[in-house]
Amino acid sequence: MDWDDLRIFLAVARADSLSGAGRRLGIDASTVGRRVARLEGALGAKLFVKTPQGYALAPEGERLLPHAEAVEAALSGAEEALSGPGDLTGQLRIGAPDGCANYLLPQVCARLSEAHPQLEIQIVALPRVFNLSKREADMAIAVSQPQAGRLVVQRLTDYQLHLAAHEDYLRAHPPIRSREDLRGHRMIGYIADMIFDRELDYLTETGAEWAALTSNSVSVQMQAIRVGAGLGIVHDFAIPFCPGVRRVLADQISLRRSFWLIRHADDRRSQRMNRLADALAQGLRAEVARLQALVVP
């Protein structure tokens, strides 16, 4: 059995398509199909079933998957053992909610790139939970701790959120001295049926019954607040990026949340992935602390 064929098998299993696997590997879809067929011939087993949604693992493919991943991890470990610690190289894909991806990861990853010039970092910002079993990302940052799956979960840092508005909006509307004064003010928040994690249901903690302007992106919400469209719950670490945005009722409405770093369980045997996780964790903690310290009380 050829390891390179196993590598292609893993790519198809994770991408659910020949074309998606080809893009990841830098080869065309027809070559991927031929290599999968060659592996199936060598094993005498059908590994995939073609469906309207793409390529799904057949029962034989499901049984092969953990063994192929173990081979992948063993080869990676062998390369690390021979190369030693040194500079971090290769590709790292980080999945993160868009608030973290927009306001924290660029600075953290810039410093990581400066320290390790041969490291290619990809930031995937999506307002949903990442599927690490399909290797959508090498590691993911989440706003709640997962309760299932073969995962390594590490608490990164806590962060603060407050109600906020732009000073132009505050000057043009009645003063806000208590929660009761929020009635009649325009609220900005998440689209209710697109909240992918209960930790993001911020507005219920303000007592607001609904929001006049909503988005599934926290960055879009912040931009709406920045242009004076209303009030909304924002990350304190995002406020320094939006001059003129001020916290409102900070002593009455204050939220605390946490970021979690999530990795596939097999990756804990990888010295490289452990070093990357440590560097990312240290960088995020420092950046959250730095930005929150800049917020005017």
Average pLDDT works out at: 87
Number of strands: 11
* Number of helical elements: 9
Compressed to H and E, one letter per element, the order equals: HHHEEHEHHEEEHEEHEEEH
From the N-terminal CA to the C-terminal CA, the straight-line distance is 63 Å
- Shape descriptor reads elongated
Structural class: alpha/beta
Largest sheet, in brief, is: 9 strands, mixed
Rg for CA atoms: 23 Å
The helicity comes to 25-40%
Measured by DSSP, the beta-strand proportion falls in 15-25%
| Regions with little confidence, pLDDT below 50 for 5+ residues | none
Q: What does this molecule look like?
A:
The protein is of the alpha/beta class. The protein has nine helices and eleven strands. It has helices spanning 3-15, 18-25, 29-43, 59-83, 98-103, 105-115, 167-172, 218-226, 271-293, and strands at residues 48-51, 54-57, 90-96, 119-125, 139-142, 151-166, 187-189, 213-214, 231-235, 245-247, 254-264. The strands form two sheets. Strands 3, 4, 5, 6, 7, 8, 9, 10 and 11 form a nine-stranded mixed beta sheet that branches. The longest helix is centred in the N-terminal third of the chain and has 25 residues, at 59-83. It starts with a helix and ends with a helix.
Secondary structure blueprint with pairings:
Blueprint: H1 3-15, H2 18-25, H3 29-43, E1 48-51, E2 54-57, H4 59-83, E3 90-96, H5 98-103, H6 105-115, E4 119-125, E5 139-142, E6 151-166, H7 167-172, E7 187-189, E8 213-214, H8 218-226, E9 231-235, E10 245-247, E11 254-264, H9 271-293
Parallel strand pairs: 3-4, 3-5, 7-8, 7-9
Antiparallel strand pairs: 1-2, 5-11, 6-9, 6-10, 6-11
Helix pairs in contact: 1-2, 1-3, 1-4, 2-3, 6-9
